[in-house]
Amino acid sequence: MRKAVLPTLLVSTVAAAALITSSQAFAYGAGDVFTRVGVAKVAPKSDNGSLANGALAVDVQDETEFAFTLGYRFLDNVGVELLAALPFEHDIHLNGGNIASTKHLPPTLTLQYYPLGGTQSRVQPYVGAGVNYTHFSDEELTTGDLDLDDSWGAAGQVGVDLLIDDHWALNAAAWYIDIDTDASINGAAAGTVEIDPVVVMGGLSYRF
Prior knowledge:
Layout: H1 2-26, E1 33-43, E2 50-51, E3 56-60, E4 63-73, E5 78-85, E6 88-94, E7 97-105, E8 108-113, E9 123-141, E10 146-148, E11 151-163, E12 168-177, E13 180-185, E14 188-194, E15 198-207
């Protein structure tokens, strides 16, 4: 009887230890360093203002590009993440004509809250809030010189990781970013362009 119980106990103990180890590995928490990579679509709001005392209606077009993030969890439920990307190039319609364009880099830093952080859940949702800095470059205008000032603004974020194994996860995320830039045409102040995009990104997450 004793001989039958000992192997059973041994198997049960090993199985329990394996389960605990696996659960701990999947439990995202304090000390995690991670990156998320994927494709992001920047979709500006539909009404982007007007220039030249209302003479030019501005419509900034959508753009899709490769993007990535870097993040760190300093508590089980709290972390930070920086959104980065290759430059996004947007066509700008003025009074319906595609006569302008610009490139921009929108690094965005958010403080994040993970409600299920530190648990065994394979589904890890999160929300974040923070600040965005947008740098504009290579502005073009067929009828003159266009200049867009860099901008600072608030940002909000929602996302979710769907864990695959100890390191990899599927990721989906969205940001709302407040981007307002003062525009000049031929050196003269022309008004403010309100881009205020929603950024939607899908890809993979990797935990180091």
